[in-house]
Write a structure and sequence with these properties.
Layout: H1 26-41, H2 45-55, H3 60-75, H4 77-87, H5 94-109, H6 114-128, H7 131-144, H8 149-156, H9 164-172, H10 176-186, H11 190-199, E1 207-210, H12 217-224, E2 227-228, E3 235-237, H13 247-250, E4 254-256, H14 259-270, E5 279-282, H15 289-301, E6 304-309, H16 312-321, E7 327-331, E8 348-354, H17 369-372, H18 378-395, E9 396-406, H19 415-424, E10 429-432, E11 451-452, H20 455-458, E12 464-470
Parallel strand pairs: 5-6, 5-8, 6-7, 8-9
Antiparallel strand pairs: 1-3, 1-4, 2-3, 9-12, 10-12, 11-12
Helix pairs in contact: 1-2, 1-3, 1-5, 3-5, 4-5, 5-6, 5-7, 6-7, 9-10, 10-11, 14-15, 18-19
Bound molecules: S-adenosylmethionine.
């Protein structure tokens, strides 16, 4: 936590100036509005924040401060709540709790001076709730300000010897069940788990994918001012700026995509197949990132991609993302292979199943996601993943390839789903060593045959890849 620890709003004596008609300065007010929308309307911060920044015309340091307050507060929610709960004798209403969370975040995780954090929190509560609530907020904020984060953690975190996962969870602001799930997937090296959890608390750089045959990596670097990605031969890491302003994106020559997603999609098209290789299927295509890459490869190699997506709106996004490429979008349930005239059994040479999942591998992008996800999300998702993988196996021809991908490292969604499919499938399958289709020399890929990428090892989202060949 504390990446970039801003002193904005506090390095200066009084913080950002208050604008007319706003209860507090615009960056804090924007952050508060986003946090409220996340709490009350299940909004996604990464979608809600950009619009509000534009509406309030915030840029530069003000936008950076609003972003850090929003992301930092939402990421640390569970730990902030433990500390707040130590100091309240009654449940604060939702708006007051959100203001306290944001105030406590400033006190404990940033260099904002305590008086600025306390005063702006109290003003925010007075102006958006009432005087009584402001008095209450003032008392809580003063108590929180009496100790450092380290002191509070010593008080609220479970004992490290008795419950190491619980202690780490509080220290790195993750739910304990997620720490345990990551430990299952990564192994019990406590130092490495800590590295992973800390990597989750840092916003990732923006990566672009240079669509093969449309623009080279070098040309995209020159256009964007970015540098070559670490692993994918198509990746460009942006130094900053708005990718939406790039002409290559508008012209369908590049798109925004994590390097891990680029690697797994590239692997799926690079496994050799004998014979026909021009019918590709993307069974879970929305919003179309991997379909964009598959379509560009397909254009180079004379293959068509059928992109299936069950949600109408997301199917429209796929169509938009793949304009000009040989990608045909179908709004359908991917499990209907064998029952839909377009989804013929054995009708495809390569099938990608980028399955709906908990998204635990992309927590660094979605600050609130870790607190929203529940272990109870797993059983229905796992069932759907297994059904989609079984459908993909029916769709691929003998000798063809199925790539099973998740942006979660949870073993139930990854290795267990694959092993269960291999065990139960009446269609004979061979599990390939997916490491062979990762960039040469890429370290930290484990013992195979599946591949698990990690933010702290590879700088990518924690993408999982299994490659299966149909052999009968
Ligand atoms: C992890 S996302 C895919 C991301 C996409 N491949 C990309 O790179 O942009 C999973 C997608 O599967 C879709 N989905 C869920 N259930 C489905 C089903 N039964 N059939 C087809 N698509 C489904 C979800 O709506 C979601 O858009």
């Amino acid at each position: 936590m504390g990446a970039g620890r801003p002193d904005r709003g506090g390095g200066e004596a009084r913080g950002p100036a208050k604008r007319p008609n706003l209860p507090v300065d615009a960056p804090r007010f924007v952050a508060f509005q986003v946090i409220r929308a996340v709490s009350d309307n299940d909004a996604y911060a990464n979608l809600a924040l950009p619009g509000l920044l534009r509406e309030r015309q915030l840029s530069g340091l003000d936008a950076a401060f609003a972003t850090e307050l929003t992301y930092g507060t939402l990421r640390s929610l569970g730990t902030l709540d433990r500390i707040i709960d130590r100091n309240v004798d009654r449940e604060p209403d939702s708006a007051v709790r959100d203001a306290l969370r944001m105030g406590a975040y400033q006190l404990l995780y940033t260099r904002v001076p305590p008086h600025a954090a306390v005063d702006t929190t109290v003003t925010l509560v007075r102006e958006t709730v009432n005087d009584g609530a402001a008095k209450f907020a003032n008392a809580i904020m003063r108590r929180v300000s009496e100790h450092t984060l380290e002191d509070w953690l010593a008080t609220v975190a479970p004992d490290a010897a008795e419950n190491p996962a619980g202690n780490l969870a509080a220290r790195t602001a993750h739910p304990e069940w997620i720490v345990r799930a990551f430990t299952d997937a990564l192994g019990k090296d406590a130092a490495e788990i800590t590295e992973l959890l800390e990597a989750d608390n840092v916003r990732p750089p923006v990566h672009l994918a240079a669509r093969p045959g449309r623009i080279t990596q070098e040309e995209l670097m020159a256009e964007s001012g970015g540098s070559a990605g670490q692993w994918s031969p198509y990746a460009v890491t942006l130094a900053g700026g708005d990718p939406g302003a790039l002409s290559s994106i508008h012209k369908g020559r590049s798109h925004v995509q994590d390097e891990g997603s680029q690697l797994v999609a590239t692997a799926v098209v690079n496994v050799p197949v004998q014979g026909q290789d021009d019918r590709w299927l993307d069974l879970c295509a929305g919003p179309g990132g991997k379909a964009g890459l598959l379509g560009a490869f397909g254009a180079e190699r004379g293959a068509d991609v059928l992109a299936v997506e069950v949600t109408e709106h997301r199917a429209e996004l796929v169509a938009k993302a793949t304009r000009g490429l040989p990608v045909y979008v179908k709004h359908a349930d991917g499990r209907t292979v064998g029952h839909d005239p377009d989804l013929v059994e054995q009708g495809f040479d390569r099938v990608l199943v980028d399955a709906p999942c908990t998204g635990l591998g992309a927590l660094r992008r979605r600050p609130e996601a870790r607190w929203r996800r529940m272990p109870s999300d797993l059983p229905p998702l796992t069932k759907l993943q297994r059904e989609l993988l079984a459908a993909a196996v029916r769709a691929v021809r003998v000798g063809g390839i199925v790539g099973y991908v998740t942006c979660s490292p949870h073993v139930t969604e990854t290795r267990m789903t694959v092993m269960e499919t291999l065990r139960k499938s009446k269609i004979p399958l061979e599990l390939l060593d997916a490491r062979e289709f990762m960039p040469a020399g890429m370290p930290g890929l484990g013992d195979g045959p599946t591949v698990q990428l990690w933010p702290h090892r590879h700088g990518t989202d924690a993408m999982f890849l299994a490659l299966l060949r149909r052999v009968g």
